[in-house]
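Reopening this ticket.

The earlier resolution said the output was attached, but the attachment link was broken on my side. Pasting everything inline this time so it's all in one place.
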Amino acid sequence: MRKIKWGVMGTAYIFERDTARGMSLAENCELTAIAGRSLEKAEEFKKTYGFARAYGSYEELLQDPEIEAVYIPLPNTLHYQWTIKALKHGKHVLCEKPLAPSAAEAKEMFRTAKENGVFLMEAFAYQHSPYVKEIRKVIEEGVIGELRYAEAALITSDYDYSNIRMRKETLGGCTYDLGVYALSLVQRMTGKKPSGLHSAASLSEEGIDTFTTAILEYEDGSKAHIDCGLVLATEKNSALDRFQIHGTKGSISSVDFGFNAPGTLTYRLRTFDGTDELRSVEVPNNYCLEVEQLGRCISGEETPYLTEEFSVSLAETVDRILEGIGYGNLEIPS
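Inline output:
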């Protein structure tokens, strides 16, 4: 098996908490270099996670000719800038969600990837889960009939103002941080983008949305609904993850479920002809799955599971939600 030489751009918490473990488990991943804003922090990560090299700037990492792929876990405001730079250096890119602040920027990022003959994939680890794929397969097989309604939610703790999730200048707020999970799940399960959309939000004094809800309407008359919020007990790292999908023959609902959770996840399948089952799926580390998948793409075995069409469509819907709540009209605090 060919191992892809990876560089990680940034010493972000999501890498420490989640992606580092996934990359270490990925059979086709070689941790080649880590870059941080300070060489001291990068050297610390190099020792902790087993990288071959450490750099004190992102540009140095991009200049490394051995690096084939770059993982970008930087704040939302930096995704576009550094993804474009990485792509122009001929690096394949796995960029954390949300891929870009807007659909226009997402389109330009994919256009740059094509121009430079490399892959770009949005890092939605949970989308690679066999649990999510099994539920999508049940829907495609028509077990619950034609979809009439879907809903999903991700609601978590709120945080201190020092956290980038809570500040406008770092594109914080629950839609960018959490709503993209609920929305991407609905998009995966319905397989389409909404024709109509209505959104409302509770906004903080700092100009971010702390709770947002959106109603999605489709051309066939079906509906969907998402909720997201930063409203649970402060700094407790607690979360509410849920979904329901209803069709003309039955329904599917989450039981034991977390968007990026590994382990045994369960859903309930009910049909109008009498089926009522709890079904369980064993889920490995989702971050490992996404790294391995992009690695296989680079090796010429597959194409990205998170496609350009999927990510751009998602970004377009996020644009509409944010426009509906007035997020873009609010001044960034100084």
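Reporter confirms the inline version is readable. The first helix runs from residue 13 to 25. Residues 330-334 have pLDDT under 50 and may be disordered.
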